[in-house]
Structures are given as structure tokens and as C-alpha cells.
């Protein structure tokens, strides 16, 4: 059993490191997931919204540190207590997501490895069992190095994680796992192949017959008894069918979707702010000069946001922006880019460059 406990130690430690680093690559994305949990109708903790990013960074760095501490045998008692508390916390979140179907992806491995709610919960249950085994046989956890070396390893890990978090928040994720990464052909991403599986539904019709409610399948409608009175219809999804990688992107203005028109543009710049109220003022101010440079070089420049028309007009006037905003779903815009605002360069429907607003001077404009 001690051998199993030792294997559990290495498995849990490595998994915590990998999971933490994947989320540390994109802490902003993890903070969006936490906001979903904090929202009304889920955990009803809206007062935590302003702290979602800070909580996300602390959690993912702690996840990496605990994984390293478990592998090196650093402060055994403290490490095991914190590991247990963290896995209980994550198990609660994944169970809540799965049972109540409130948050469809826990974000355990970011966008790198999407998991279903029940898949995430099962993963955490397995980890919980393994951690309990490690706790029962905690004597197997002995320091790999002397106290000074172990402490130095933890300190270096903390510094490197802190630097990585700072870098990606002030630039962009080091590795983009999303559907809108550089090189993506948006036109191809939204298309559905002719031979793609279609969504399948079980359709049930309810009729009143002789004062009683009875149900019929769509194939039985031709044999309804005389005098049957229709009550209602229920559609149950059996199979979702093919879902294209990009299925929720729009560019709406004045009630029309200009997506096809924009994707035909040979040189297009998208300046994205999913929420103008939460956008960085310095970032919005910097868009004026950048947009003018792009316009001079022959680019079509538009903004994309989920904000109201009133907010859009106020922002354009305040920062004297030389472009118009089109609207799109906020969740979609968060998926496209993490900075607020951010810059996406598209050529004939293909994403060729993405930059944080702080790196606008690094954007290559032809």
C-alpha cells in the first residue's frame, strides 16, 4: 500500500503542477470562470467580482507550489492540509457545476483540455481519494533535499510563477489554446460540412383525448383518434450533432450582422473590448493613434464590444476614436482575446496577429 501511496504522491504532485501552469498561462480566463461561479443564480457571491483575478492568480500559483512541495517533501503537514482543502474546494465547485448545470466547464485545465462537468467532478473525486491515501501514509513523504535546498526550490518556484503571471497579464498567454488563435481561418471555422452529423431530437406531442392527456411520437400523428385536441409539444435533444469551432461570432450594427463582409476584407483590424466599463482607460486612449496608423496603411478598422450604444458613443467621444464599434456577445469576445482592449489583425478571414494593447507598437502593419 505504501507503494501505491508513493505513486499517488507523484501523480498528484505532477498533475497539480501541470494544471496550475496551464491556468497560470491564462489567469484572466480562469478569473472569467470564477466570475461565472460568483454570479447570481450560481453561488450568488457578486461582491467577489472585483477580486476574481486576484483569487485566480493566488489559486493557480498555490496549485503549482503545492505540487512542487508534495514532490520535494517540503513541510509535509502543511502541504497535505492545504492539498486536502484545495481539492475539497475544487470538488465542491465541479459537483455544483455538474449537478446544477450552472457552469458547463470548470476551467480545471483552461482551454487546453476542456472537460465536461461530470468529467471534471470525477477527476476531482479520484484526486481526493489519492490525497486521502497520501495523508493516511504520510510517513512516505520525506524531504528529497535538505531543508535549505527545499526552501530554495519553493522560493524559486514562487518567483518564476509570479513572473509568469505578471507577464501574461501584461501581454498575452504564452500559448493560445482557444478557437481564435493566430493562424485560424474564421471563415472555415464557422462553416459546417455538408456531411456533418445533424442534431437529433425526440419530439413528443401531447393531446387531450376523452378528457385525458396522452402523448404521441411524431410518427404516430397520422393515427390520432378523432376529436384529439392538441395541448403542447416537447423536444428533447438526443445528440447535438456537429458544432463548428467558431459558432457564436457576430459583428452587429443597426440590426445587421456584417461578419461575412468583414471577413472578406483583405486588411482588417479588430479592436476588442468585451466591456467598455471595465476597459483600461490608458488602453482605450492608445487606440486612437494605433487606429490612425492602421487607417493610413489601408486597414479597415472597427471596434468590437458587448457594451450598450450609449456607452459606445460616450467612449468614442471621450477618447476621440476614429472608428466605429460593432457589437458581439461578451463571452465570445472574452474567448477571442484576454486583454481589454486588445488588437486582432485579420487578413481575408485569417487571424494573423494578436496583441495586448500595451504591445500595440509591436503590431506589424503592412
TrEMBL record:
Keywords, alphabetical: Membrane, Transmembrane, Transmembrane helix
An example GO CC term for this entry is: membrane
UniProt keyword annotation of Lipoprotein present = no
Q: Name one Pfam family in it.
A: MauE
What species is this protein from? Myroides indicus
Spell out where the chain crosses the membrane. Answer: 7-25, 45-71, 78-98, 118-137, 149-169
| Name assigned to this protein | Putative membrane protein YphA (DoxX/SURF4 family)
Q: Where in the cell is it found?
A: Membrane
Mode of membrane association: Multi-pass membrane protein
GO BP, sorted A to Z: methylamine metabolic process
Q: Where is the Methylamine utilisation protein MauE domain?
A: 1-135
Amino acid at each position: 500500500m505504501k507503494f501505491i501511496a508513493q505513486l499517488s504522491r507523484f501523480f498528484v504532485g505532477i498533475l497539480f503542477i501541470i494544471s496550475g501552469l496551464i491556468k497560470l498561462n491564462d489567469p484572466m480566463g480562469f478569473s472569467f470562470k470564477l466570475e461565472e461561479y460568483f454570479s447570481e443564480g450560481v453561488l450568488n457571491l457578486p461582491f467577489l467580482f472585483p477580486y476574481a483575478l486576484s483569487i485566480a492568480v493566488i489559486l493557480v500559483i498555490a496549485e503549482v507550489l503545492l505540487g512542487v512541495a508534495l514532490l520535494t517533501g517540503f513541510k509535509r503537514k502543511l502541504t497535505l492540509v492545504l492539498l486536502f482543502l484545495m481539492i475539497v474546494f475544487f470538488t465542491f465547485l465541479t459537483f455544483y457545476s455538474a449537478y446544477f448545470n450552472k457552469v458547463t466547464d470548470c476551467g480545471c485545465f483552461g482551454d487546453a483540455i476542456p472537460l465536461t462537468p461530470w468529467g471534471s467532478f470525477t477527476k476531482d473525486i479520484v484526486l481526493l481519494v489519492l490525497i486521502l491515501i497520501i495523508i493516511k501514509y504520510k510517513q512516505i513523504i520525506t524531504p528529497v533535499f535538505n531543508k535549505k535546498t527545499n526552501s530554495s526550490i519553493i522560493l524559486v518556484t514562487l518567483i518564476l510563477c509570479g513572473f509568469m503571471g505578471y507577464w501574461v497579464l501584461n501581454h498575452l498567454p504564452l500559448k493560445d489554446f482557444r478557437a481564435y488563435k493566430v493562424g485560424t481561418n474564421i471563415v472555415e471555422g464557422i462553416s459546417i460540412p455538408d456531411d456533418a452529423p445533424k442534431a437529433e431530437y425526440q419530439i413528443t406531442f401531447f393531446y387531450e383525448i376523452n378528457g385525458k392527456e396522452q402523448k404521441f411520437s411524431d410518427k404516430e400523428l397520422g393515427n390520432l383518434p378523432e376529436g384529439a385536441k392538441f395541448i403542447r409539444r416537447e423536444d428533447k435533444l438526443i445528440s447535438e450533432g456537429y458544432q463548428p469551432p467558431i459558432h457564436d461570432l457576430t459583428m452587429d450594427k443597426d440590426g445587421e450582422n456584417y461578419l461575412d463582409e468583414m471577413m472578406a476584407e483583405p486588411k482588417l483590424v479588430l479592436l476588442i473590448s468585451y466591456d467598455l466599463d471595465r476597459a483600461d482607460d490608458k488602453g482605450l486612449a492608445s487606440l486612437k493613434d494605433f487606429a490612425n496608423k492602421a487607417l493610413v496603411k489601408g486597414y479597415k478598422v472597427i471596434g468590437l464590444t458587448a457594451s450598450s450604444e450609449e456607452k459606445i458613443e460616450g467612449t468614442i467621444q471621450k477618447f476621440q476614436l476614429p472608428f466605429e464599434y460593432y457589437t458581439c456577445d461578451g463571452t465570445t469576445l472574452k474567448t477571442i482575446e484576454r486583454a481589454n482592449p486588445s488588437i486582432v489583425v485579420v487578413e481575408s478571414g485569417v487571424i494573423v496577429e494578436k496583441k495586448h494593447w500595451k504591445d500595440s507598437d509591436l503590431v506589424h502593419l503592412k
